[in-house]
Design a protein that fits this description.
With about 500 residues, this protein is of the alpha+beta class. It is about 45% helix and about 10% strand. It has 16 helices and 13 strands. About 45% of the residues are buried. Bound molecules: flavin-adenine dinucleotide.
Length: about 500
């Protein structure tokens, strides 16, 4: 924290390489010892020695740079106050369109009540404080999620909450004091969107995505109560890990093409103890819960996002599986696989739409900050056209998403599969097409920084590199668009034929 009150003329007298001070946002920084380690070189610092460098600084840096180097701040200016708002953990962003409409104070929503708002506030604080710092490190170094974070999420029932509403939450008090019994799909939307704010696409999947898409099948389809309760307890307490193993090199979109023996691109597979596995049988398909043990081997697959996701190639070599480990009915596992996809896809819609919004926020801030041809970027009509398009995609998708979540709240699992599989497929397909448009516009707005992994453009660079994960995982754009139309045709009245 600044400890001295200084005048502008005092700062102006420290204008040499040996004693180099400057002003940023009404605070005084002593950069004399920083000259040789400044990533942008010493020359540019010498150019601002003794001056107010606020505009030059914000033309090139994020606010977090000042937070990182706060020990260099030696004082504040007499009778002046900092103007830049520094967000605290849990804060809402004041940038227009940076938050979904229901979180903007001026607007109302028919969907969200006080309990959703309490959850949102508490999850945001949780993510800002406990998830983002670890996510940022692991996204870069590719190491796996810490047991400490898993344990914390287990203690706070965050792991349980991320499976969506259901009996597994009953009797639990969740973040924000929300009772497990009242947790619905709008709460689910809220928590999923908040978790995405750690801006780390690989770690986002590394943070138990495998569990989120597989334990749901155990809860819904495992007949044997002893196994179901034991596995659920082990996983939700953070002692064991579980993932979903459907896809093979031979069978991706065409799930019916499964052959058995190998599984490809299995999220979190590297560290999992249980694999919810789609298998071919003589008369169809079965889904089995397979424990890691003799004959099960996992190897990493290098993806274009962080290795923190633990994406694995899995081999099952003559593995013996007890009969009780069957999910659903033997030879009739297709329904298990297909209906389990619904929640995964809903969750992916929540995530990619929220991530797209963060990119829009980055662009709005940057356009207001960056000066090119002596004007802010936002003063260029061509740039405003791009922003208009990006904002519209995000707002339209969020509105559709909230509408679907609201419908889910009043439907049974079976009704959701029947009536919402198509709309969720269409939304996911459209949301990732929107992400494509948004990534494209955002990189152009950020220029070279949109292609640079550190600094101002890092969120945009990552989004542009990874938004395709949402377009492929959990069902590709083409397949889901097709599913949406095919499901609609099933509802076409006979009289129209
Ligand atoms: C990082 C990552 C993590 C994953 N995690 C998991 C996981 O945890 N568990 C799991 O089981 N799977 C996982 N997957 C697999 C994922 O679900 C599949 O990649 C996806 O379903 C597509 O299958 P495919 O890659 O084999 O593409 P293919 O099926 O080979 O399709 C190739 C392309 O052809 C298009 N196409 C195919 N059929 C048609 C058609 N009829 N009409 C028009 N276009 C068509 C597809 O849209 C796609 O663009 C993961 C994949 C990745 C990349």
């Amino acid at each position: 924290m600044p400890h001295e009150t200084l005048t502008r003329s005092t700062v102006a007298s420290h204008n040499t390489a040996d004693s180099l001070w400057c002003i940023i946002d009404h605070k005084v920084y002593d950069l004399s010892d920083f000259l040789d380690v400044h990533p942008g070189g010493s020359v540019v610092l010498e150019q601002v020695a003794g001056t107010d460098a606020t505009e030059t600084f914000y033309n090139l840096h994020r606010q977090e740079v000042l937070e990182k180097y706060s020990p260099l701040c030696i004082g504040v200016l007499e009778n002046e106050k900092p103007e830049v708002i520094v967000p605290k953990p849990g804060d809402l962003s004041p940038v227009p369109y940076a938050e979904p409409l229901w979180l903007r104070p001026q607007f109302k929503s028919p969907y969200f009540n006080d309990s959703h708002r309490r959850l949102q506030k508490a999850v945001r604080e949780f993510v800002d404080t406990h998830v983002t710092p670890e996510a940022q490190v692991k996204e870069k170094d590719g190491s796996y999620i810490s047991q400490e974070l898993i344990d914390r999420m287990a203690r706070e029932h965050v792991l349980a909450m991320r499976l969506g509403p259901g009996k597994h939450l009953h009797g639990k008090v969740l973040l924000g004091g929300v009772k497990g019994e009242e947790f619905d799909y709008l709460h689910d939307l809220v928590q999923t969107q908040e978790f995405v704010r750690s801006n780390s696409r690989g770690f986002q999947d590394g943070n138990m995505a495998g569990m989120v898409i597989s334990l749901t099948a155990v809860l819904q389809w495992m007949e044997n109560k002893e196994i179901k309760n034991r596995v659920t307890e082990e996983v939700l307490s953070g002692k064991k890990n579980i993932c979903l193993a459907i896809t093979e090199a031979f069978a991706g979109s065409d799930v019916a093409g499964l052959r058995n023996g190998t599984k490809k691109w299995i999220t979190n597979g590297m560290w999992c103890d249980y694999f919810v596995t789609g298998c071919r049988t003589e008369k169809g398909f079965s889904v089995l819960l397979i424990s890691r043990g003799e004959g099960v081997e996992t190897n990493p697959i290098k993806m274009s996002y962080s290795a923190a996701a633990g994406t694995a190639f899995v081999e099952f070599n003559n593995v013996k599986v007890p009969v009780e480990n069957l999910l659903g009915v033997e030879h009739d596992g297709f329904i298990v696989i297909m209906s389990n996809f619904n929640h995964e896809r809903f969750m992916m819609c929540c995530a990619v739409i929220r991530q797209s919004r963060t990119v829009v926020e980055e662009c709005l801030k940057w356009c207001n900050q960056r000066i090119v041809f002596k004007r802010k970027l936002i003063e260029q009509p061509a740039i405003r056209q791009k922003l208009a398009k990006m904002v519209s995609h995000v707002e339209a998708n969020q509105a559709w998403l909230e509408q679907i979540a609201y419908q889910m709240c009043s439907m049974s699992y079976a009704q959701q599969s029947k009536l919402l599989g198509g709309p969720i497929g269409l939304l996911k397909s459209f949301a990732t097409r929107s992400a494509h448009e948004i990534a494209d516009g955002a990189v152009n707005i950020f220029g070279g920084r949109g292609l640079t992994q550190t600094g101002m453009g890092r969120v945009v660079e990552q989004f542009h590199r990874t938004y395709k994960f949402d377009a492929i995982l959990g069902g590709t754009e083409e397949i889901l668009a097709d599913l949406g139309v095919r499901q609609a045709m099933k509802g076409m009245p006979k009289s129209m034929l």
